[in-house]
Amino acid sequence: MDILKTTQLAKSFGETHAVDHVDFTVTAGEVLALIGSNGAGKTTLINLISGLIPPDSGRIEFQGADITGASIHRKIELGIARSFQLVNLFDQLSVHDNVTLAIFSREGRTRRLLSLADADVAVRDEAVLVLKQFGLDGRAGAPAGGLSQGERKLLDVAVAYALKPKLLLLDEPTSGVSTREKAPIMDIISQVVRSGGITAVIVEHDMDVVFTYCPRIVAMHQGTILADGTADEIRNNAQVTANLLGTQTA
Amino acid sequence: MSPLTARPRRVLAWSAPVLLGLVALPYVVPPYQTVLLTYGLVFAIAALGFNLLLGYTGLLSFGHSAYFGMGAYAVAFAVKYLKAESMEVFLLGGIVASGAVAALFGLLCVRYTKIFFGILTMALSQVLWSLAFKFFWVTGGSDGLRVPTPTLLGGSVRAGGDKFDFLSHRYYFYVLAVFVVGAAVMWVIVHSPFGKALQAIRDNETRAEFVGVQVWHYRWVAFLISGVFTGVAGALWVPLNGLTTPDILHWTFSGKMVFFTVLGGFQTFFGPVIGAIIYNYLETYAVGHTVYWQMVLGIVLVVMVLALPAGIVGTLKRLAPRVAKAT
């Protein structure tokens, strides 16, 4: 069953067709990689689905409902959460507070003015549990701005995960981290996503990461979808090899 | 933990002795000093409100004189047109008037940030200033409106013959009580889930949207609360001053609130409170000692910004661990 479907989705910036009438589906429960060179339209596609920018035309459906013009807030309520290529955190808040805020928001409790956030034991404990899943429980009290890049990447995903999404859009979760850190980060993300039964769309440049962790791969090029298939199918696709992979897997 | 947050027990541990000292103060210092401190506490209430926007939401307002002035003029109008004399009625009037104006101005301002927000808040406060100046048959124009000494606690406490004694004792305790309640309420607000959401907006607006926080709505509520706190301060200030004039609606008065906050440190909860009290002494003594008092204040501000950007309390907080380590 499709959890997400885009129909003729388009977005241009001036003369550049960043996303050019894309038809794209994601099946519930799958972990899918979006690959492509810089400017292929991957992040724009994620931005359109998550609501950061509005499309010029086309339609986005989530669980069968039209969400094309829905607000970010509505999309989050429906179960779409995302992380960012350039990590977006609340730097002056503690690591723990970054996650508790997401939980309070999910529970509709951020409007509470006259109760102490720290007094909510259930939320506090859930936040600790989430941080444990991401291996960040030892850093709970540290300000988010003081984390290493790898930890920040994980926290960015943890904040999105704490919203209990049905669809998680991860924009380059390993960008900017050392090669040595990539596999542990992806191991944690993969474990959390699979154990939570979450559908995930991962934008990624690192082909080792993509081929290791994503059973389905969608390749984009110049705003359009070039290929869609398994790791082997993508490796053996002549167009993908010519445009994206070069001689790497040829 | 964010520098803006603190544990309740720790706060109580040091605020309780301070409070006891404040309660004992009128009995150990001359009445003039108590009245000066009353002004300081009134400004501290305004600073608490102001810092909800600056320190916690990341919005620098140059128009908070509007809400302070609305609180003050609401009291003056209650006296002039309703013949009211109860401080509780004054406070209610101040809350309603400043809340209404903050709600309206907030709708316009919170969709903007940074310099656009600052300029818009200042421009709107200047509109009120010009109205107070020009509609003299209502507002008294530059002569202002006089406000007599109010009755307290539903009329059970009255001024009697000695106004200065009333202001330096009974009114001081009244203002102190309002300050304590206001500080406690604000402390809970900034440590509530709502307060965390405001801090999230301050840190990263985009991310706040993507955890489901409706940014402009939260900013508007923060703006409203901030305006009401400032309005309460205005309502408490005018019986102390005995007169309200358009000066308190002018943007330069908003600048004072920025000064309080920078002086004390906007990245701490109590920084603006300390800043407001110190500023009041600083201005009073500078005015009393030199005609160049504005230059003195200007120099202090420049030194603060350059040498102590974290403000007095912020700097003390940073130095405290080093001092503890050294000893």
Oligomer description? heterodimer
Please give the CATH class of chain A: Alpha Beta
The total count of helices of chain B amounts to: 15
Q: Over all CA atoms, what is the radius of gyration of chain A?
A: 18 Å
Q: Say what the CATH topology of chain B is.
A: ABC transporter involved in vitamin B12 uptake, BtuC
Q: What percent of residues of chain A are in strands?
A: 15-25%
> Total strand count of chain B, please?
2
Helical residue percent of chain B? Answer: over 70%
Total domain modules of chain A: 1
Q: If you consult CATH, what is the topology of chain A?
A: Rossmann fold
CATH architecture heading of chain A? 3-Layer(aba) Sandwich
CATH class of chain B: Mainly Alpha
| Largest sheet report of chain A | 6 strands, mixed
| Structural class computed from helices and strand pairing of chain B | mainly alpha
User: What number is the mean pLDDT of chain B?
Assistant: 91
Low-confidence stretches of chain A: none
Secondary-structure element order of chain B, N to C: HHHHHHEHHHHHEHHHH
Estimate percent helicity of chain A. Answer: 25-40%
Measured between the Cα atoms of the first and last residue of chain A, the distance is 34 Å
Written account of the structure:
- The complex is a heterodimer of chains A (250) and B (327).
- Chain A is 36% helix and 25% strand.
- Chain A is of the alpha/beta class and 250 residues long.
- In chain A, strand 1 and strand 2 form a beta hairpin.
- Chain A is globular and about 55 Å long.
- The mean pLDDT of chain A is 90.
- With 327 residues, chain B is mainly α.
- Chain B has a single domain, classed as Orthogonal Bundle (ABC transporter involved in vitamin B12 uptake, BtuC).
- In chain B, 50% of the residues are buried.
Q: What descriptors fit this protein?
A:
heterodimer; A: 250 residues; alpha/beta; Rossmann fold; 6-stranded mixed β-sheet; 4-stranded antiparallel β-sheet; 9 helices; 10 strands; 25% strand; B: 327 residues; ABC transporter involved in vitamin B12 uptake, BtuC; two-stranded antiparallel sheet; 2 strands
